[in-house]
Amino acid sequence: MLLAAGLGTRMRPLSNETPKPMLPLGGRALIDLALDRLADAGVTDVVVNKHYKADRLEAHLNEREMSPRVHLHHEDELLETGGGVRAALNLLGDAPFFVVNGDSVWLDGPTPTLERMAKAWGDDIDVLLLFHRTFQVQAEIGLGDFVLDPLGGVRRPKELEIVPYLYAGIQMLRPSFVATAEPGRFSMNKLWDQAIEAGRLRAIVHDGLWFHLSTPQDLAEAEFALHGALVGSTT
What we know:
This protein has a single domain, classed as Spore Coat Polysaccharide Biosynthesis Protein SpsA, Chain A. It is built from seven helices and 13 strands. The longest helix is centred in the last third of the chain and has 16 residues. The chain is globular.
């Protein structure tokens, strides 16, 4: 599933007329970059939720001729991250599935990121998150999101604790676990906390390049960094 329904308020004024996942980076819409990565990993079908500027997003995706196949799921009201996934379960099947933020842009390390996540999945996991190292991100990110132990176990930070990892916008979920939540509006953090409490949330650390895209400045800096990564520029 690819999450594309949000308002993108921190990206204003760029998102005033254009849904955030359609903003360009390196000459491609953010949502196309994410879909391309999913296709490269062998994903054949992706559910995309829509709400804000839904007609524009739908028209853009209908023009896309490349794989994967896109199945649109409209949200009459915003359901947040967890509620949006919960509402689309009937389209997602019974097997564990990826959930990717519509503005997620990443370059793989030595092994493709989604392949690493699939290999890390196990019967004792309900949620698998991709982390990125806090110190490698230049954008405003606060004190970090999580602590990760050597066995992949995860905990939240204590009060005022600076922690080394951020959520990098990609996760795997067990559909039967998501189905335990009541339908409606809720953040994915609710499910994450339940999985942490049960000892069934794990994480791996990204070993490639990842862009934190919240503001117009983040997008401009990512454009510069992506150009350097692709052409080898060091200045």
